[in-house]
């Protein structure tokens, strides 16, 4: 299983598997990204994977556990390398945006310096270009996963990132190019919020060992518990 980020994703996958005719029960483990299905032996496993895919996630039948584990490890390693590249790009693009918009909080004269040199409107144009690159590049992974989940009415953490950054970005675009549409006193830009959120979430995914999308604290905690927990347990009767 791939693409799950939180406990609600587990429920969505379990519900999807339960809709397949013949399935008696389905249990999904968020930490290990494995699903156990109780069904007749003659049930076509393709129906199960198709149900999961329709729900917006990825799935494959485990025929060889060792080979599957090796493939999963290779996939995660490739995702982490891609995430590191995205993180580096996001930081390089977001840092100038952050400095231009928030630098005056550290150095009060910085705002006046920007206004006197490149001008505030040109500063907003530059922030627009840089933030657009952040969202279209490193931030794309959150939209690819989050928007479809939102349209299916099953939002996840990727949806939260996509909605939040889009709101900040679109408001800023209106303030930059058609400020007359906004009420007096509300013409401000929030490009730095959208850019920094993408960079921060890329860092968060790398910091928490996981996949190529936002995994959320539930999944990270589950994996940590799985690694630190005992290999066996003894059940004693009452």
From TrEMBL:
Taxonomic source organism: Advenella kashmirensis (strain DSM 17095 / LMG 22695 / WT001)
Listed InterPro entries: HMA_dom, HMA_dom_sf
One GO molecular-function entry: P-type divalent copper transporter activity
Biological processes, Gene Ontology terms: copper ion homeostasis
Spans annotated as Disordered: 219-238
One GO CC term, this protein: membrane
Keyword match Signal: no
Keywords: Membrane, Metal-binding, Translocase, Transmembrane, Transmembrane helix
Protein name as it appears in the record: Heavy metal translocating P-type ATPase
TM ranges: 87-110, 122-139, 160-182
Residue stretches making up the HMA domain: 1-60
One Pfam family here: HMA
């Amino acid at each position: 299983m791939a693409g799950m980020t939180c406990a609600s994703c587990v429920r969505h996958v379990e519900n999807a598997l339960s809709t397949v005719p013949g399935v008696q029960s389905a249990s999904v483990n968020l930490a290990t990204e494995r699903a156990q299905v109780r069904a007749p032996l003659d049930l076509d496993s393709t129906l199960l994977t198709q149900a999961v895919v329709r729900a917006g996630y990825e799935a494959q039948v485990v025929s060889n556990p060792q080979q599957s584990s090796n493939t999963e490890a290779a996939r995660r390693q490739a995702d982490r390398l891609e995430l590191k590249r995205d993180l580096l790009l996001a930081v390089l693009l977001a840092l100038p945006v952050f400095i231009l918009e928030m630098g005056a909080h550290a150095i009060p004269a910085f705002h006046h310096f920007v206004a006197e040199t490149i001008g505030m409107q040109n500063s907003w144009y530059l922030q627009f270009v840089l933030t657009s690159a952040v969202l279209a590049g490193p931030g794309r992974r959150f939209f690819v996963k989050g928007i479809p989940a939102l349209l299916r009415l099953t939002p996840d953490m990727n949806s939260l990132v996509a909605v939040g950054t889009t709101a900040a970005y679109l408001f800023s675009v209106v303030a930059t190019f058609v400020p007359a549409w906004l009420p007096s006193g509300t013409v401000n830009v929030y490009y730095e919020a959208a850019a920094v959120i993408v960079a921060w979430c890329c860092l968060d995914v790398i910091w928490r060992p996981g996949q190529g999308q936002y995994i959320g604290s539930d999944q990270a905690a589950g994996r940590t518990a799985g690694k630190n927990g005992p290999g066996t347990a003894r059940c004693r009767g009452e």
